[in-house]
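Run log, item B.
One chain of 591 residues. Sequence copied directly from the ordering sheet:
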Amino acid sequence: MASRPGPSPQGSSPEQRARAALEAGRPDEAVALARRLCQKDPKNAAASAILAEALLRLGEPEQALFAADRAASVETGLLTIRALRALKRSDDALDRAQRLTSSHPQNPDVLAAYASCLGALGRPEDALEHLRAASALAPEDANRTLALAASLLETGRTREGVATIGAVAMRHPTAPALLSAFASALNFSDQASPAYVAEAHRAFGRALERTTPPPPAPPINTDPDRPLRVGFVSRDLHRHSCAYFLEPLLASLDPGRIETTCYSLGSITDDFSRRLQESSGRWRDMPSAPPTDAVQQIRRDEIDVLVDLMGLSGGVRLAIFAARPAPLQLTYLAYPNTTGMSRIDARVVDEITDPPTPDCDALASERLVRLDRCFLCYQPDARAPDVQPRAANDPFTFVSFNTIQKVNPTTLDLWADVLRACPGSRMLIKHRGAGEEASAARVSAWFESRAVDPDRIELVGHIKPIDEHLGQYHRADLALDTFPYCGTTTTCEAAWMGVPTLTLVGDRHSARVGASLNTALGLEHLTASTPEAFVRIASDHAQDPANIRAARLTLRERMRASPLCDAPAHARAFTQAIRSLWDERAQRRRP
C-alpha cells in the first residue's frame, strides 16, 4: 500500500527530510529522497542506511542489501544482516554478523544482531550468551532487555524470562510494547494467578488505548437481510500454526451471509498465503502500513465486524483496534488470553475453555462468546505421512513437541512423576534448540535433578520438512501436554499421526484448550482433573500399551469424522455467533 506524502520539516537537509519520512511511516518517500542522496555520493553511509531501512519496510530485501553494501558503517552493516536474513541467507547473515562483532565487540546492537542470527540457526543457548552481553553493555535499554527476556523464554528459562521482562515493564508502566511483552510472557508462567495475568493484560489495554483518542462510533448498516462484511486482521496469513485453523473457516463461510476481507500485516507470502487468498472474498496486503493507514482502509471497506487474529502477539499493531474502525470488534483463535482492551467487544471461545461462570467472565475484558462446540476447526497438512504401527516390543514412549517456553518447572515435575511411575518407558522431546550441546545438557540436568535417568530422554532438534517432522510420531505412543499453557497445533498434529495427548485441566483458558480438543475428538478419558490422575492415566497406558497402540491406527479416521475437522458445522456456529452479536448491536441503533 503506497504511503501518503507528508510535509517536510522547514529548513531541514535532504538527509533529515528522508529520515523524517521514514520515521513518519512513509517509506516510499524516504526511498525517493535517499536515492537522490546516494546518487550524488554512493559512500554516504547515513543515506544508504535510510534507503536500506525504507526498502526493507517496503518488502524489498534484495534492493536493501545492495543499498546497505554500498557504504561502510555499523548501521549499514546491521541492515545488511537484516536483509540477508529476510532473503533466507542465514549462513551469510551469520558470517557478516561474526565479522561485525569482531570489529565492534562492545557494541550492544552488533551483539544483539549476532544473537539473532544464532537463534535463527537453532543455536538459542549461544544467542542467549550474546544477548546477556548486549544487555550488560546497555542495562537501561528497554528493547535490549526485552530481547534478553525473549531469549530466556526460548531456552526454557521461563521464570527468569518472566521476571526479567516484568522488571522492565514495571519501570515503564505506560509503554504498550513492554506491557504487551510482559503480559504475553505471563501465559507461560506456572506461578502467576489467572487474576494477576488478566490484570497485566488490562494494563496493556489501558496503555494502548491511551495512545488513541476515543474514536467516533462508525455507522451501522442495520439492514438485516444483507451479508455482513467481516474483516480478519493478522500478521500470520502464511504457513503458520494459526493458518491451519483459519483456512477451513474461511473456505466454509457462506458468502451469502458473510463477505470476507483479509488484512495481511505480515511480510511473508507463500503457497499457504495464496490458498487463504483464494478462500477470502477480498485481500489487502499491508505489511508496512502504519496502523493509521490500516484503519482508514478498513473504514473505506465499510467493515461491519473486524476480527483480530493476533491478540498480544500482535503487540502495538492492536492500535488498529484501539481506533475502532468497525462497529463490532472481536478477537479469536491466535492468542490464549484476553486482549485487555475495552474497544474489542467480544472474544470467541467455547464452554470448556471458558466455562460460563462469573469468575471466568471476570478474567476477560471482552464479552466471552461461547460456541456450543470446540472453538477451533483444524485442517491437517496434506503432506503428513501415513500412520505407522508400533511393534509390540517397542518401549512405551511419551512425547512432547511443544515449544520449550511452555516447559516450565511445574510441567517438568509432572513429566518426571510420570516417568518415575512408568519404569522402562522413555520420552522423546523435540524443540528447536535440542541439537545444541548446551541445551541438551540443560534438559538432561532438569531430569536428573528430578531422579529420572537422562538416558531415558531423547532430544530431537528442528526438522524442517513437515513429513519428516510429523514422521517422528511413528516412534511415540502418548503425548504429554504442557501446563498451564497447553499445546494446540501440536495436539492436533499428534492426533493426526495416531498419537493422542494426555492433558491436565487448569484454571484458565490456556490450561483448558487440551480438554476442549480431547472432547471434540472423543478422548475425554485422556483429560485429567488432577496431577495425580494425570500420572495414573499415563501409568495405566504404559503398563498395558496394546489398546493405545491398536487405537493409533484408527485415530486419524476418527479425527477426520470428528467435530474438530467439521469445517461446515464450525463455520455455521461461528457465523451464528457473530450474527447474533451484530443483530444485538444493530437493534440498539435502530430508531
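Observations after the first pass:
- The domain at 90-192 is CATH 1.25.40.10 (Serine Threonine Protein Phosphatase 5, Tetratricopeptide repeat).
- The longest helix spans residues 567-589.
Flagged for discussion on Thursday.
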